[in-house]
Amino acid sequence: MFELKNATMIYDMDKEEKAYAMNRINLTFPDKGLVGIIGPSGSGKSTMMYTMSTLKRLTEGDILYNGESLSGISEKRRQELRRYELGFVFERHYLVSYMTALENAILAASCPVNEAKAKAEKILVDIGLKKSEFNKTPAQLSGGLRQRVAIARAMMNDPKVLFADEPTASLDHENAFLVMDRLKEYSKDRLVVVITHDHSIIKDADTVIEVWDGSISNVTTKGGQA
Prior knowledge:
Layout: E1 2-11, E2 19-28, E3 33-38, H1 45-52, E4 60-65, E5 68-69, H2 75-84, E6 86-90, H3 101-105, H4 113-126, H5 143-155, E7 161-165, H6 173-186, E8 191-196, E9 207-212, E10 215-221, E11 224-225
Parallel strand pairs: 3-8, 3-9, 6-7, 7-8
Antiparallel strand pairs: 1-2, 1-4, 4-5, 9-10, 10-11
Helix pairs in contact: 5-6
């Protein structure tokens, strides 16, 4: 699915001492499963996600997505990938305050409205919302429910890859594990990449990638070290 080849991201390029967010990383991701990328703040884990998801460009090296180089693709192609093949969940839910849960879920849907509503209703129920909560605005929902609406929105176009950057950081443990259970379920047929600093929420991950100072310090799979 993804292959990183000497992937490098340098900040402060004009300074004598450069800051490496990613330092010549070589790594291959599976086509499906739950992959956790863990490390302390500033380790480069979020930068890895942003470059894989085309939100940022590498300074050096390349990232291949299904054999396609992401370094030289056009902005139009980047937008196509983000709309149809990649989904995003962030620490903050970024829901539209005046829209209902259902309206937020279908906001970026690529199918007709009636079809999108039916699909969103099923996803929202599957993810733990009651039908009585569909017409509530974000302010009327708990933090855990708001994050679940954000996940439903990310799943609406059936992305092949779902990126989640600290998706549980603002949730209590009970809600955090409920969110991770849903992401784990989605990863049975697709790739889910979770960025976190919390080992406990990726205890069921198929692969755990540990990042330190812009480099990979360890990769562990369910069968042992990679």
